[in-house]
């Protein structure tokens, strides 16, 4: 009764939050990220949840600062109009990254803590591997961060661990099945797969579904013919076609290529395999694209892990493991609520690879956030890499899966990256920046704006207004900043705004927030770039030509044969997820600015059928990072008295 | 102020809990475990926490039914006397297990829900691997269970995932280090390990500690001689001596023996390796034995992963990874609070292997529980396998680490296992039981009681009173039950009691609870079995002769050379953790009853230096289970509407 009343009030109420923001007193020089994070006391997460209209039975608290949000909320608020949907994308970055996460966080701090507009940031959960390898955390930076940053960067609420467990259960099931099929007769397999329990022999539900797929419409195990038994018990996996790999959330380069099955108990069925980093698992891509528990279960079942010896796809469902995978993922499907340094809400959910997958946070977090902010509120989400990759996939893959229509794109640029595109010297992680980057150089900036211009044009292909956010560094001169904003506006941006959230928090992004709000009220004629009905190669060509500026594409024989296979298998109408370097619009990372006249070489074509996309490989993509000679773990420590984490950055 | 007052009241209060127990209405026939679990609504975990005297800032809630408990409680209650400490052990079991977990849970349900005595059960967290393989869950069974059983059996609060992450970070660091040392000069290694950052070159704290261990008392990187640099930068790991393995929490038999490093990027440094199941990690054993965050960090640093080419041990600390491992384990060190079917408290914490490790739940959970129950309360904890293994290790390893003194041992027996020891036919998992086990057979029972008698005698070696708990099955006849209890008492048990908690809940274990309470007030003359100062082989001999009844031991040359090596390395005074089959008192699983006249063969000797024990191998121990032809995942499913898990048992 009280619950029902609470629900009714919630559904009727004006959606302006009564949110208590946390005050910031930025220091100069800006301290390290972990020091800033630690200096701010986050609100208890149940307090935050209440402030933004979540009911007590819609959250599951994990410690003081994290909570999972139940999907039941989507049903409760289904008649509530969505808020405005903002994507943060970027120009072609340097290897250091240009601060998309920081802009995302700074923007919502500005919207909610300074302009009193409901807003939510939706971020990807970072892989734990690199946290101990070379790059450190991914919670934003400076005075635009998600806190506590060590919680964000470590286990969080266990979603990546759940993905690892599900991924590896499926991998183990594949090899064990091949072994059992190779060492047993049809009869013996059948007796074990369909055993007599308490005097009765019966199929499990997932076995009945397989029988139906095989066209065997029987339910009594005693009535199958020998031929039907053979069809039923043998998946007949061709080991050379296995595409399902094991994963760990650790940078372990020695697992890039391995031989498995060398113990005597495996009777000689060795094969070459590999481990990928956990976030490269197709299950991560599914988590990011799914819209409900039912949908997730179906996608998990559809995942193709290999072909059989006749060239037909073998799925997780065929292996009988769909239900177990769904059980392992039942909590991971709920987005995790955290907060920014200024106490505004953040969802952290899913973090698929941005090359072999689509590199965007979850559809479900965005959907829930769009309901929670209400019609006049804003949800700011982020796409990996430059706009040519992350944004293109956001529109053509993620928006297709969700049905959501974006209102504005924020395109992040830095003077540093623009100078690189203008012909500046190489920028490498770990090495000090050359003087071109620390002293004013208007010519390099002007020359490099071609990349910004091109990325703006790419955005316009999709019919969505674009606001350029220039992430200002202290070495940028006012003239450089003005020049970028001027060129951006001349190139078709709705607005272009310098931002200082890194050093000043949300206050430093207020102008950006105002520009975004204004742009969101512009006419929007959002459209996808290609029709799904086109042949696979044609869809690849459209992306290559219209987005990357390629002259044409060239498929290797291997790639062509995969295209033919997927088309034959009925997967031809999936969207395309390009696996291309993010360091150039072309396939050659050293070609900066706006390369032209190149033929994009497609070396291979693969598919994530459960996630729902075909991914052409443009060159080789590493799916397992390594540890350098001096990994960051040398600096990471735990104070056993205060329990404080040191050295994460 | 309010917090302080709350603390003061808590520390002064009479410790009898005002606990609201959950009512049970047992059905007959007894439904499946998951059905029973689902039919009971657990209390909100914060309510339970308050009932047992935990302060609000001492718990971290994980969802509705689980909470982690902070170690700060040990400081607050340090002057509070401990409760009584009860160990549940068993006779030599059949492969089906004889119900120690069920007795543990039934006993606390009886003590608290029926006799109104404060009590806590401390259980091991089960590995997730077998949940999807052959055996199903481990939350007790019938009407003596931890609920919700699916939470207990799946990710819980992520501790095993944290162990996996820490274990594999260390594994990756070993191989990456070998590669970097093999491909770089001393100078290049030094420049990378001690880089110039912002113009300054400095050692990290963990590098300074390594310098001190090497006898180099310098802090300025510029002052090291070439020889000192070489000593510092080269761990010089001998790859053939690496004992640190990677782990996954999945039954993946194809990872039992593998070759790693076969990608071109690893430049030919391939080697043979293996994955173990995650709970076999030494880090799990450390979690179970540690007494504080500081102690855990030191143990993690001490772990020996290999020898260098001079035969000296190489540790996690040498690899610079101690702090990172501690950071990954900072939440796992906190025990997880759950509840029984009758709403009484349970800690679930750590679950090390019972052969290559000591098979007991955590010291910290026991310590915290002993404070929470108060002087007149009871903490019931469980040891893996039969008393000859699990209990012996509990006393000689776990009690040594904790300094705690046990009050009573509950020795679990079943008519089924006793008949097997009396000469009954083989008992195998999956096959129906022979009629000897379902019909009365007093002779088999009488003959088999020799094993019970022997296990009682083993308990008496340690000077602790023993109560026999006969776990009654519906096929056991009253005469069989009476006979076992009579023989047990004649053999020196303080009492022997039939129990029916499986079918009746705590009510069915009230007599056991009363017997345990009485036994706890007996005189107790607890002592360890051997002095740590004895030579390694002598300690092994004492266990083999006094506990197993062996005539003598025989060390293989490999085992002898390891004993010599560990003694030389200064590890000779650690306790012994025997890795022996649990299916016989001897090393031969088929020898039931009380085998005599055997020589125990020690094939190899290994060490877990961080956990703090030497483990002799008696035969080969599998550290990676496999998936059978029809794994239990065929029956596991998730209802996408109700979110209910099906098929776990």
TrEMBL record, chains A, B:
The organism's place on the tree of life at top rank: Eukaryota
Keyword field contains Iron: no
Keyword Nucleotide-binding applies: yes
GO cellular component: cytoplasm
GO molecular function, one term: formate-tetrahydrofolate ligase activity
InterPro entries cross-referenced by the UniProt entry: Formate_THF_ligase, Formate_THF_ligase_CS, P-loop_NTPase
Name of this chain's protein: formate--tetrahydrofolate ligase
């Amino acid at each position: 009764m009280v619950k029902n009343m609470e629900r009714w009030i919630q559904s009727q109420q004006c959606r302006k939050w009564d949110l208590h923001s946390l005050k910031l007193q930025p220091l100069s020089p800006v301290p390290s990220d972990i020091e800033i994070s630690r200096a701010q006391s986050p609100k208890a997460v149940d307090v935050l949840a209440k402030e933004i209209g979540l009911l007590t039975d819609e959250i599951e608290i994990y410690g003081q600062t994290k909570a999972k949000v139940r999907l039941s909320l989507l049903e409760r608020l289904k008649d509530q109009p969505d808020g405005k949907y903002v994507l943060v994308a970027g120009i072609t970055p340097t290897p250091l990254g240009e601060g998309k996460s920081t802009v995302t966080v700074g923007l919502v701090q500005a919207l909610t803590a300074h302009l009193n507009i409901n807003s939510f940031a939706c971020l990807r959960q970072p892989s734990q591997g690199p946290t101990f390898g070379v790059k450190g955390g991914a919670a934003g930076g400076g005075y635009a961060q998600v806190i506590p940053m060590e919680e964000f960067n470590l286990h969080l609420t266990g979603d990546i661990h759940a993905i690892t467990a599900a991924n590896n259960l499926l991998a183990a099931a594949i090899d064990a099945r091949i072994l059992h099929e190779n060492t047993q007769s049809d009869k013996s397999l059948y007796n074990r797969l369909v055993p007599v329990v308490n005097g009765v022999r019966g199929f499990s539900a997932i076995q009945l579904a397989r029988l139906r797929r095989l066209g065997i419409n029987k339910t009594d195990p005693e009535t199958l013919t020998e031929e039907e038994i053979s069809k039923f018990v043998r998946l007949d996996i061709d080991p050379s076609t296995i595409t399902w790999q094991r994963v760990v959330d650790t940078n372990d380069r020695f697992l890039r290529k391995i031989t498995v099955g060398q113990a005597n108990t495996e009777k000689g069925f060795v094969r070459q395999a590999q481990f990928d980093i956990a976030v490269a698992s197709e299950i991560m891509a599914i988590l990011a694209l799914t819209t409900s528990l039912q949908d997730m279960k179906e996608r998990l079942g559809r995942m193709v892990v290999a072909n059989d010896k006749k060239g037909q796809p073998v799925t997780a469902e065929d292996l009988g493991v769909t239900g177990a995978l769904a059980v392992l993922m039942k909590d991971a499907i709920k987005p995790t609520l955290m907060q920014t340094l200024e106490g505004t809400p953040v969802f952290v959910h899913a973090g698929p690879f941005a090359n072999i997958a689509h590199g965007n946070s979850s559809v479900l977090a965005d959907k829930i956030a769009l309901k929670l902010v209400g019609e006049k509120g804003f949800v700011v989400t982020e796409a990996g890499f430059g706009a040519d990759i992350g944004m293109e996939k956001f529109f053509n893959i993620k928006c297709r899966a969700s049905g959501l229509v974006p209102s504005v794109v924020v395109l992040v640029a830095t003077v540093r990256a623009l100078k690189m595109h203008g012909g500046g010297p190489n920028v490498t992680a770990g090495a000090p920046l050359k003087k071109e980057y620390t002293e004013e150089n208007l010519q390099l900036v002007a020359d490099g704006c071609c990349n910004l211009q091109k990325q703006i044009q790419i955005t316009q292909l999709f019919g969505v207004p674009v606001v350029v956010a220039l992430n200002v560094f202290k070495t940028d001169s006012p003239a450089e900043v003005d020049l970028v904003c001027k060129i951006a506006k001349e190139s078709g941006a709705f607005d272009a705004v310098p931002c200082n959230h890194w050093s000043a928090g949300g206050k430093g992004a207020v102008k950006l927030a105002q520009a975004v709000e204004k742009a969101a009220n512009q006419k929007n004629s959002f459209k996808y770039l290609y029709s799904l009905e086109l042949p696979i190669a044609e869809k690849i060509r459209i992306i290559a030509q219209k987005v990357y500026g390629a002259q044409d594409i060239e498929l290797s024989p291997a790639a062509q044969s995969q295209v033919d296979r997927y088309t034959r298998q009925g997967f031809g109408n999936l969207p395309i997820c390009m696996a291309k370097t993010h360091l150039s619009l072309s396939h050659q990372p050293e070609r900066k600015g706006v390369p032209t006249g190149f033929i994009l070489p497609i070396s291979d074509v693969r598919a994530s059928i459960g996630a729902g996309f075909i991914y052409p490989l443009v060159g080789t993509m590493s799916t397992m990072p390594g540890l350098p000679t001096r990994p960051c773990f040398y600096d990471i420590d735990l104070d056993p008295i205060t329990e404080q984490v040191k050295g994460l950055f």
